[in-house]
Fold this protein.
Amino acid sequence: MSRLTPLALLALLAFGTPLRAQDRPLPPPPAALKDFEWMVGSWKHDAEGVQLEIDCSKATGGYFLKRTFRLKLGSEQELILQQVIGWDPARQQVRSWAFGSDGSFEEGVWTKEGETWENERVITYADGTKGSAVNYTAPMDKDSFHFKSLERRYGDRILPDIIGIEVDRVK
């Protein structure tokens, strides 16, 4: 009878199966995330009463990207959003999950058309109302990208599109 190491016991409790390197060698980080490496770093947009800061880093050995958004619109309270982007091997697609400081959460599916990333988001707002949006992110050069959010909904309400936002790398 073999004894479980503390790590194997933790894996058993967390995932339901023993985690042993010889049983399940870890694959290398997914190639699909290489297309997102340009996002790593700090970014900022500050114009027309919109202040946006984004920090992006590789997480969990390169298997995911973690992005933190800080958004302030005029005199409104700052909204902080934590987003994780990763390859879903079961669905064979890039997905994201995000959680807002206002109690909202969302998941998204990412696809690429040319140099533009499309993120189809399904949102649950803090009051339980369902929503959706399609975000488009396109690098302009190594130090800036263009962002827009279309087809935005809050319940049955159609929200205005957000277009023409340029976000610059913080140097």
Notes: Helices lie at 6-15. The chain has one helix and eleven strands.
